[in-house]
Amino acid sequence: MPKENRKRGKKHKKTQDPSQPSGDPIHENQNSEHHDRPSWIVSAQEPEDAHPEAPFGYVDPDVKAYFRTVDDQIRTWQQQKPYEEEDHTADLDPNEARRIFLVAALSEMSGKEKQLATDPDCSVVLERMAYSMDDFVRRVLLDSLSGSYEALIKHRFASHVCQTLFTVSVDTISRETKGIYPSVADSDDKGELRTLTCLILDICEELAPVFTSLLMDPFASHVLRALLLLLSPSSSTMSHKALSNMRSKKSSAWKARQGTMKSVFANNDVQHHVNSTRSVPKEFHDAAVKFVSILKSELDDNEVRALAGNKVASPLLQLILEVEADLGASSLSGSLMDRVLVGIITLCHENPDEQPEASDYLVTLLRDPTASHLLETMVSRCPDPAFTILWSTYFRGKLARLATHPVANFVVAKAAERLNPAQLKAALEELESAWNKVIGSARTGVLRAMIDRACVIRVHEKDICQAVCNAFELFEPKDRSRLVPCVLVLKPLRVTGFLLHNDIKLMDISKECTEAAFTKRTSEDTQQHSKGDNMDNSKVQGALILQSLLRLNEPHCMVVTESITSLTTEDLISLSQSPISSRVIDVLFESETVPFKVKRTLIMSLIGHYHTLVDDRIGSRVGDRCWAFADPYLREKIARSLLTHEQFLAASYFGKFFARNINLYLLQRRPDEWRELQSQRKSGSGSITAIHPAASMTPQKPNSEDAEVSPSSKKSKKRRSRPEDEIDAVFNSSLGAKVKRTAVNVTSSSDKSIVEKSVDQGLQDVLGAIRAAPSDDSGRGKRQKR
Questions:
Q1: Half-sphere exposure of 410 (CA within 13 A, CB side)
Q2: What b/e readout covers 613-641, taking b as 16+ CB neighbours within 10 angstroms?
Q3: Between the CA of residue 744 and those of 112, 702, 757, 763, what are the distances in Å?
Q4: How confident is the model at residue 246 (pLDDT cuts 50, 70, 90)?
Q5: CA-CA distance, 218 to 616, in Å (whole number)?
Q6: Alpha-carbon gap, residue 263 to 252, rounded angstroms
């Protein structure tokens, strides 16, 4: 015993009270048996209860260390860019090397799948490996987890593994629906491996009895969303909003720190965008219907409504309502949507002319940050008669307050996407006096939604333009030239005009004062006021409004195009070089309602300034779009205006790609050939496409025939001099002959003629340059004398 734990005084042995029992007879028997046995026999300990963090046991430290190296290697391969070359001198195919590495990791994983899935470090490795598994391996992994999915999807780490497996199983199920199955090698294992379709259906059967209890689980709800998306992949359920609800914000941020997760095999795009029109087995639709019916039968009306305000269950309830609407069951009385809408659908069937009273429950959903997302789903997917009652009861007459509310404005914007012409006209009249408050609060979603709705139904476009002008206080026709600067910064003309007046006043002061005194006097005023009218302060909301206005019909979209053409060249270049406002120029070229003349005028207004425009990361992209839209005549005018700035473009980091695209050298030497080339490119493109600058930078991988020669020239000479034996013949037939990269193998007669023509043409260019050089007799005489 340690010295500090000892007690002072005499030691007294405890005497046992004869009235008390001697102890547990079971333990006494065990002790007596223990004394009878030899000393080297130790009784086995009773098994302890499984730890909730590791319900299937802990992973061995050596195995965990091995999978940590596997994770590092796979992450390196996944973050590697496709054009990066690894090791061309190796004889082994990189895909084959990675396949061998993955097979070794899978062999080590066999029998430990559940332990690895519940481990905080190894679960990420399983997620990373799932993207590189083939169809057969995915079936084996899902089959090894069968019977434990209820515990796995409620686990903190294993739930993400199950979610990833359901996500990557989309392509496998699509192939199995078409009858494409992987070839299975013969093995000594007995039993039949189920297809992935059967495995998913068995998982649904396993989770059906506990489906309602999993709705509120913080880990299982995300897995159920992935499972429902797998069962019912419609266009609505595969929307961006539904996919964004697949993970929580904390989980999404954590996964983003793990790096890119994709297949490690080259030229094998395993991670595709999910196609909403892909075919699924009929049994999947039946499984989705079963989940909806379970929810309707086991939960009453109040319990379903209580799920709307729960942060965990509300996103899953949104997805279930989407599935119910896709199945055509939301328009029936007693459906889940009818329960959440407080019986509005039932009222439409029984008494469609009756106007119900506003429910406090739906009014609360309008302003709740969590439940408002559910109301957006119901507003967009409910039947038309139910939407009419919903709009007239909860929106009409309250738009002025709801449009400026920080939460309710999103629901109003979603409802505006379904308005008919009469409802849109009434809404514009109601919001006529509230647009200035909408712009002042920078909540422009309702205004943009109404512009988009007018573009769809092609009515009340003039009223929409007038509403936008009134919102920014552009009451006079002459003031509408300031529409684009006002909308981009989301400030009315009164504010932007005041800022412009201050700029002019500062310019007058600069004439009176010296330059140094002016800089010192107006530095603070310039920082505060001159930024108001700068394109760098553009807001995303303002740029989206301008893009929506450009999609209106021709008489009404001209209010934006006229404002753009009235800008000075410096302002237009500043607008084109902003990452936010440059999207307005993109939509101007893409919109079918904008006249061709306006687009041509915009391109011609930049002639003489393209070198300044493309000397920027964003401006170079706009310059490529202008070049792609221009006809051969405009292209020649643009190219000839850049001849004097050729050196400037060559020195520019972004401008050199634009110069390489227009090919100024060919225009100077052979103009006719350049014009013919531009005509062919214009006729072959057919549509406006932006040319990516990085495309010309992508290094080309050499062919097997263009491999580098050995650095030792002596060895190569010896190899060429000695006779070819059987081993050399085998290697040459499999790998091919190795020649220098600079060597060009001309096989066909057409290729020979092309090469000869290019050589002759290059020689003629050199001779022509020599003839055109000025003659200097004095210099010639000095050279001869020297």
A1: 15
A2: bbbbebbbbbbbbbbbbbebebbbebbee
A3: 54, 12, 15, 19
A4: low
A5: 47
A6: 20
Q: Which residues have C-beta within 8 Å of that of residue 575, sequence separation ≥ 6?
A: 484, 488, 535, 564, 567, 581, 582, 584, 585
Lowest mean pLDDT across 179-188, 549-558, 585-594: 179-188
Model confidence at 243, in pLDDT bands (50, 70, 90)?
low
C-alpha of 165 from chain center = 20
pLDDT surpassing 70 at residue 407: yes
Measured over the CA atoms of residue 333, residue 339, residue 340 and residue 343, the dihedral's sign is positive
In angstroms, the CA 3 to CA 418 distance is: 83
Average pLDDT over residues 685-697: 41
Q: List, for residues 304-358, the tens digit of each pLDDT value.
A: 999 999 999 999 999 999 999 988 889 999 999 999 999 999 999 888 888 889 9
Name the DSSP class of 345: H
- Three-state secondary-structure class, residue 51: strand
| 3-state secondary structure at position 542 | helix
Instruction: Give the residue with greater pLDDT, 533 vs 382.
Output: 382
DSSP structural state of residue 713? H
Distance between CA 482 and CA 499 in Å, rounded? 13
CA distances (Å), 292 to each of 228, 320, 464, in order? Answer: 10, 7, 42
pLDDT band at 783 (very low <50, low <70, confident <90, very high): very low
Q: Cα separation of 59 and 70, whole Å?
A: 15
Instruction: Please report the DSSP string for 126-148 in residue order.
Output: HHHHHTT--HHHHHHHHHHTTT-
The end-to-end CA distance of the chain, in Å, is 107
Residue of 500, 503, 510 lying closest to 525 (CA atoms): 503
DSSP label at residue 616: S
Tokens of 567: 């800008």
C-beta separation of 657 from 627 below 8 A: no
Q: Let me know how long the chain is.
A: 786
Residues 646 and 652: their CA atoms lie apart, in Å, by 10
Amino acid (1-letter code) at residue 165: L
Question: From CA 34, how far away is CA 219, in angstroms rounded?
Answer: 48
Sign of the alpha-carbon dihedral angle for 215, 220, 221, 227 = negative
CA 232 to chain centroid? 21
Confidence of residue 512 (pLDDT cuts 50, 70, 90): very low
11 contact partners, CB below 8 Å, separation of at least 6 = none
Q: Which residues contact 329 (CB under 8 A, 6 or more apart)?
A: 289, 292, 335
Answer yes or no: are the C-beta atoms of 658 and 627 closer than 8 Å. yes
From the CB of residue 208, how many other CB atoms can be counted at a distance below 10 Å? 13
- For residue 308 the two structure tokens come to 């709307």
What secondary structure, in 3-state letters, does 230-285 show? HHCCCCCCCCHHHHHCCCCHHHHHHHHHCCCCCCCCCCCCCCCCCCCCCCCCHHHH
* Contact predicate 85/701, CB 8 Å: yes
Q: Cα(494)–Cα(187) distance, rounded to whole angstroms?
A: 81
Its pTM stands at 0.74
pLDDT tens digit string along 645-683?
999 999 999 999 999 999 988 999 999 999 999 888 877
Give the distance, in angstroms, between the CA of residue 698 and the centroid of all CA atoms in the same chain.
23
**Per-residue pLDDT tens digits for 366-381:** 999 999 999 999 999 9
Q: What is the DSSP string of 150-216?
A: HHHHTSTTHHHHHHHHHHHHHHHHHHHHTT--------S--S-PPPHHHHHHHHHHHHGGGHHHHTT
